[in-house]
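Q: Convert this sequence to structure tokens.
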Amino acid sequence: MNTSELRPEDAAAALAQVRTQQDQVFATLTIPDWYWPALGGLMLGFTAGVESRRPLVIVVASVAFALGLGATVAAVVARQRIALRSDLLGARGGLTIAGFVVALVGLGLGVGFTLEALGVGWPATIANGVVAVALVAFGPPLTRRLQRIMAEGAR
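A:
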């Protein structure tokens, strides 16, 4: 194609098509909605096992958590058809993830220590239940935000 024949509207249309295809690719790089309750349930089971203070229950809960988390992550990774480039997330994506984790840890610690101070039984398990609810509520929006960050990073 002769570049002198390329019209600005054709270039704009081609660029729009590339961006649409990029957005479709990033939409496939997703953490499925079932991941968040699965993670919350695994955390809750592990915490309850530890808080039971019964050695056999702690061992079973620990092994179940490790195997369950491994299977959950493997299932998420296996369904990805393309490799994720970490440079697309950049500092903004990293800070978004770090902020999410810090907020959840702060929530769990705050609830747990408050319940402990009030003398409520199983405070860590209850606190992790609150964190599990937050994971289910805010995990999918986090995924969508990361997809937007990656799409913007590709541009």
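The first helix runs from residue 8 to 28.
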